[in-house]
Amino acid sequence: MTAPARSKASPLVIRTTNELQAWSDSCRQQGRTIAMVPTMGALHEGHLSLVDAAAKAADVVVVSIFVNPTQFGPGEDFDAYPRTETADLEKLKGHAVEVVFAPNAAQMYPDGFATSISVGGPSMGLETDFRPHFFSGVATVVAKLLLAARPHFAVFGEKDYQQLLVVRRMTRDLNIGTEIIGCPTLREADGLALSSRNAYLDAPARQKAARLPAVLKHVIVSLEAGAPVETALADGRAALERSGFEVDYLSLCDAATLGAPIPGHQRRLLVAARLGSTRLIDNMPVKAGD
Ligand code: PAF
Question: 255 by DSSP, 3-state: which?
Fold first, then answer.
């Protein structure tokens, strides 16, 4: 039997968790597999690559668009975060998305909402040292989204590598029953990872931003050539500071756990650094060392 042609028309927009659950139940009753792509909107090619990966993994795709207040701390960019729903829906046309779930904050966090999920393990350190509220906000909203849409798969970008590991840990620990798929980071021609926050960069900052992936690559070449880790990281940090970045962290971690690197295991180099008021994060794989 040939698979039914996928509809590439405008997606159906659902705004309540009850309707999303009913849609998911009907897909499951029809034997259709579901893949979800959770987003905060301001969609770019990176998101669209996640949508395309979702369409390969399952019969139907649901994209969520929700700027989640609980993952922003005081003084962060919650109010300024770009909200571009009409343009987002337009971009999703032609990408085989059946449903867009776009709730408001009262739908996700009704009066009296009192639950928060705290994940240990891969949440420890890195982003948590600078944004202590972040992963409980992410874990709580992602759990709500997965429990409402009950997808067989959910797709996340490796651009937010720590987030990917935290979400994977949380779904396994809570038996949510969704397989988490990680997809490679998409980059601009000069290497800058695609991110909705790149929109905050003015022209000179945008030019400087390309130093971030360039320095990561340079550090990786040194590490893989056997340079001592402390020296390679200190050189990388100094190179970023010379380019005008304020560095939150530049760390080499075990790729699977984000703990200290383990001889013979894959490693990951992760960075968060600020250019003016814009905070950028990035990461790249590093071959196993001794
Ligand atoms: O990566 C994001 O855009 C967000 O952290 C997510 C996973 C959609 C949760 O709000």
Answer: coil
Which residues lie below 8 Å from residue 19, measured CB to CB, with a gap of 6+?
none
Paired sense of beta strands 179-183 and 278-286, if any: unpaired
pLDDT in tens, 115-128: 999 999 999 999 99
Tell the residue number behind the tokens 């100094």, with chain if given: 238
Residue bearing tokens 């038996």: 175
CB 94 within 8 A of CB 142: no
Number of H helices, E strands in the chain: 10, 9
CA 135 to ligand 1 centroid distance, Å: 10
Per-residue pLDDT tens over the stretch 139-178? 999 999 999 999 999 999 999 999 999 999 999 999 999 9
Greatest C-alpha distance within the chain: 61
- Measured in residues, the chain has a length of 290
Q: Give catalytic status of residue 47 as yes or no.
A: yes
Contact indicator for 99, 20 with CB cutoff of 8 Å: yes
C-alpha count within 13 angstroms, C-beta hemisphere, residue 256: 6
Q: For residue 274, how many other CB atoms are within 10 A of its CB?
A: 14
Yes or no: say if 140 and 70 are a contact pair by the CB < 8 Å rule. yes
Q: Is the CB of 49 under 6 A from ligand 1?
A: no
113: DSSP letter? -
Q: Which domains are seen in the chain, by residue range?
A: 12-183 (3.40.50.620), 196-284 (3.30.1300.10)
Probe residue for ligand 1, chosen from 39, 84, 196 as the CB with the greatest number of ligand atoms within 8 Å? 39
